[in-house]
Specification:
Blueprint (H helix, E strand, L loop, with lengths): L8 H24 L2 H31 L12 H36 L3 E6 L4 E4 L1 H7 L3 H4 L4 H4 L3 H8 L7 E3 L9 E9 L2 E8 L1 H37 L7 H31 L8 E3 L1 H16 L4 E6 L3 E4 L1 H17 L6 E9 L2 E8 L21 H6 L6 H11 L3 E7 L3 E9 L3 E2 L1 H10 L1
Parallel strand pairs: 7-9
Antiparallel strand pairs: 1-2, 1-5, 3-4, 4-5, 6-8, 8-13, 9-10, 10-12, 11-12
The structure holds adenosine-5'-diphosphate.
Adenosine-5'-diphosphate binds next to helix 11 and helix 13.
């Protein structure tokens, strides 16, 4: 940091010289004429000098109250230097301010020209600034709404929940109440500890194409369901018919057809399940799901699926979950069936349901083949498989983890995968605290009824 500046002698040297000259004249007058005359001369001349300085000081004071380039005072001697420097400093600061304002204006014009909406908010979600696209997207006004809480102006529940959550890893897609024809994608970028940028993007067109794709897949799956059921039914009848003796080859072919038809049936069912989960219209059914009972059921099913080839165990806290029983059962069931399908005989699988202050965690831990780290980010994509043939051989559709992801998304939960090739994997579904019903809460609710 710069310390206090020292007085500069060169600036006051002329003034000192002037005083010295006046003193010398007073001395000469005193010696040549009369001491009194010299004294009077000294007093009067110093008084005049003092008055002059006072006048300049006052001029400086007046100018500093309202500094302007046009009114910088004129002066003589040291004051002339001071005023000239003041003029230069003031002009430099004015230029700097103008350049700053120009840059800010250019920055705002650039941001305003972007096709994305931008809203600058503080830690209390109050609007500091927004561009015209954001005004149009969110139905807010820079002039009227600056300083107001964004969530008080855009009241869509999903938007409010998103903005007040601390999780902005995924953007939110929603249709604003004031303009339901518009599909908006909203992302939040935290750029200073107390400020964030809210980015809005019109994704109506992409959503429309996506909806068309979803409808198409759902329709095709739906149309395939009935013929497949018929084919499956007849194949079963043929295989089971006691009055139709068959040679080994024909039976083998029929069995293959039955297996493949079964695979197609599972594929169609999974595709239909995914379309149901993806269609945003159906809200999550809010049921009280007894996790202890669910884990027991899943373990029993896993036992049947494993056929005694794996060690199976489970432990569950007493807490329940608020959510859709069917959806959670399907998601957790997929994790369990994966654990069995990707764990060689002799391995073990453990199901766990634990609760902490942060929420609940359902995990499936296996001692199976594990997954290499490069595959982990893509596992929840549809039809992404590490080993296609193993997936098919074990009856996989390639859609299990995509279903898990969607179910968890609908329950504001997340999936984490911990895995080491050759050592096994742990898939954990993290449910938010709001979805966990502790035993004490259940008892209190029952007592209140
Ligand atoms: P699939 O029907 O092929 O199992 P999923 O979507 O359920 O489809 O899983 C995607 C891929 O993730 C699987 O093909 C498999 O490679 C891998 N995977 C899933 N669960 C496990 C697990 N417990 N252990 C090892 N790999 C797994």
């Amino acid at each position: 940091m710069a310390g206090p500046q020292k007085p500069r002698l060169t600036l006051i040297l002329p003034a000192l010289l002037r005083v010295a000259v006046l003193g010398a004249i007073a001395l000469v007058l005193g010696i040549v004429f009369d001491a009194k005359l010299g004294l009077w001369f000294a007093v009067i001349s110093l008084g005049v000098l003092l008055a002059l300085h006072m006048a300049y000081l006052s001029l400086l004071g007046v100018w500093l109250e309202r500094p302007s380039l046009d009114t910088v005072p004129q002066g003589f001697g040291a004051w002339a230097t001071v005023f000239t420097r003041l003029y230069k400093a003031h002009r430099a600061s004015q230029l700097f301010e103008r350049r700053l304002a120009d840059n800010e204006e250019r920055f705002r014009r650039t941001i305003s020209a972007l096709p994305e909406g931008i809203v600058l908010i503080d830690a209390a979600l109050q609007i500091e600034w927004c561009n015209p696209v954001a005004e149009q997207h969110l139905g807010i006004s820079l002039r009227a709404d600056t300083g107001l809480r964004l969530t008080n102006l855009v009241r869509d529940p999903s938007f409010v929940a998103y903005m007040t959550s601390a999780h902005f890893e995924q953007p939110l897609v929603f249709r604003p109440l004031n303009n339901p024809a518009l599909a908006l994608s909203v992302a939040v970028i935290e750029f200073e500890s107390a400020r964030s940028i809210v980015l809005t993007r019109d994704v109506t067109q992409t959503e429309r194409v996506d909806a068309m794709r979803r409808d198409f897949v759902a329709n095709v799956s739906h149309e395939l369901r009935t013929p497949l059921t018929v084919v499956n039914g007849f194949l079963e009848t043929l295989l089971d018919a006691p009055d139709a003796p068959m040679d080994g080859v024909r039976r083998h072919h029929l069995q293959l057809m039955h297996e493949q038809a079964g695979r197609m049936h599972r594929l169609v069912e999974d595709l239909l399940m995914l379309s149901r989960l993806e269609s945003q219209e159906s809200a999550v059914v809010e049921e009280d799901v007894d996790m202890g009972a669910l884990l027991r059921e899943l373990t029993n099913e896993a036992r049947a699926l494993s056929g005694g080839k794996h060690g199976l165990s489970y432990e569950a806290d007493a807490a329940h979950v608020r959510g859709s029983r069917d959806e959670l059962r399907s998601a957790f069931g997929n994790l369990v069936s994966n654990a069995i399908r990707y764990t060689p005989a002799g391995g073990s699988i453990e199901l766990r349901w634990t609760v902490s202050d942060q929420g609940g965690a359902f995990s499936v831990q296996d001692t199976g083949i594990g997954i290499a780290p490069e595959h982990l980010p893509r596992l929840t994509e549809r039809f992404y498989r590490v080993d296609k043939s193993r997936s098919r051989e074990t009856g996989g559709t390639g859609l299990g983890l995509a279903i898990v992801k969607h179910v968890l998304l609908r329950h504001q939960a997340r999936l984490t995968i911990d895995s080491q090739p050759g050592h096994g994997s742990t898939f954990t579904a993290w449910l938010p605290r709001a979805r966990v019903i502790l035993q004490s809460e259940r008892t209190a609710a029952a007592a209140a009824q």
